[in-house]
Specification:
Number of domains: 1
Number of strands: 0
Number of helices: 9
Strand content: under 5%
CATH class: Mainly Alpha
Largest sheet: none
Shape: globular
Structural class: mainly alpha
């Protein structure tokens, strides 16, 4: 690890700390079946991450107020502030599913998933969103068999959110 530049080591440590906090918080404050809500993680990470997550929450609020242009600009700004924020990519993926742009949604889901855990596994509280959004995007692309499998997994993991087969801005907020 010492061969990595200082900034890379610092980011790895920060990401690990954020996910440890999410896992600990999820086991203490929220039932295990409740998927993560972005507003629950605004205090985690360094100041850049916190500012970026607050922008994501502003974007979700804008979507709830039917201001999709403002929402998109908030998500894009969140990525400018912290390109390593998986929640910004998750929110963008949800946004693109909602505006019927599954190709962009899948691109952002891939990025979110790679930021959550490069080894391919991720915290259980984010799993339903990643699976469900991927299923929704694949469904829009006509890949129904794959989509139903993923949406079924999301429903089993978080029936209160994914029972209707979609993730609304207020459910992610």
């Amino acid at each position: 690890m010492s061969a990595l530049p200082f900034e890379a080591r610092r980011r790895i440590v920060c990401l690990a700390a954020v996910w440890l906090c999410i896992i600990v918080a999820s086991s203490c404050a929220v039932p295990a079946s409740s998927p993560v809500r972005i507003s629950q993680v605004t205090h985690l990470g360094d100041t850049r991450r916190q500012a970026s997550v607050r922008l994501v929450v502003e974007g979700l609020d804008a979507e709830l107020a039917a201001s999709s242009d403002r929402a998109l600009s908030r998500y894009q700004r969140a990525i400018q502030v912290d390109p390593g924020n998986p929640f910004a990519y998750l929110a963008l993926a949800r946004y693109y599913v909602s505006v019927d742009d599954p190709t962009r949604a899948l691109e952002h889901l891939d990025r979110a998933q790679s930021l959550v855990d490069p080894s391919g596994s991720f915290p259980p509280r984010i799993s339903p969103h990643l699976l469900g959004l991927r299923g929704s995007a694949l469904e829009e692309l006509g890949r129904d068999a794959e989509a139903e499998q993923l949406l079924g997994q999301a429903r089993r993991l978080a029936p209160s959110v994914w029972g209707d087969g979609r993730l609304d801005a207020d459910e992610l907020r």
